[in-house]
Amino acid sequence: MTAEDRGPEDGEQVRIVEVGPRDGLQNEDRTLPVQERVELVERAVAAGVSRIEAASFVNPERVPQMAGAEEIMASLSEPARAASIGLVLNRKGLDRALESGVGEVNVAVPATDGFSVRNQGTTVEAMLETLADIDGALAGTGVPLSVTVSTAFGCPFDGEVPTERVVEVVRRIADTSAVEIALADTIGVGVPRQVTELLRRSEEVAGGRTLRCHFHNTRNTGYANALAAVDAGVRVLDSSLGGFGGCPFAPAATGNIGTEDLLYMLHRSGLRTGVSLSGAVGVAEWMGERLGKTPPAYLGRAGAFPS
């Protein structure tokens, strides 16, 4: 691996949040055993990933692919544990995450009631109240809080999501100690112009919080949206090794943008990520072998340029 493999040394930094071990696996037919999920996290960290969705502290009966969160955290090396993000949706999940030693807590707050009720069993307003409770419980722990606004660009149940609705959810999140707010295109319906406008409006009420974006390539707009976000000033993006991913509670929510494809685009655009492109391709191939399928991302098949 060369320095150029992680982006030009003099390039501006764009940080990658690797979501493969959580969002990438939660909708797969084949459930990977705990030790293989641990190895996936370790391999990603070795490739240069500094933040990674390592575990989901949700009800394993609803999402069996995410069972064993505590075992995963207990088996991680110290560097991987420090890089780990744990998804929580309630106080019980938070207690589990803190006892497991996660490096960061992420809470998902949908922008629409249709998705919130089906995915989390509660309304958006009730979820915002839960977020405030989680925020209070995190005080003094030293564990940072990030919040993801799901269905910010469109909902599989409620349809179009008014910008004002998303902006109000962001404003409410900004009342907490969250250090970062992610806007998520959960079902891959957003387009670049929408990305630019939603980021502009969200920044107005985010109170200086870092804005992050999470895109799916369901309708082949994910990478264009990612570049639009970067052009709008976003410097943190979610992606999934191999382009795996989807939501079991969102019909037709196919894969996340692939980490290796995103790295290629960013590096060739003169930006630095610190994540090895060749390393990411290798981890995605390893992941595909265990899932018994070819990774949806393209770079593993086409190869980098220059080769």
From TrEMBL:
Keyword terms: Lyase, Metal-binding
Residue span, Pyruvate carboxyltransferase domain: 14-281
MF annotations from Gene Ontology: hydroxymethylglutaryl-CoA lyase activity; metal ion binding
Basic and acidic residues bias: start-end ranges: 1-15
Pfam families reported in the protein's UniProt record: HMGL-like
Xref: PROSITE patterns: PYR_CT
Region entry Disordered, spans: 1-27
Gene Ontology BP, a term: L-leucine catabolic process
InterPro entries cross-referenced by the UniProt entry: Aldolase_TIM (IPR013785), HMGL (IPR043594), PYR_CT (IPR000891)
Family, as annotated: Belongs to the HMG-CoA lyase family.
Name of this protein: Hydroxymethylglutaryl-CoA lyase
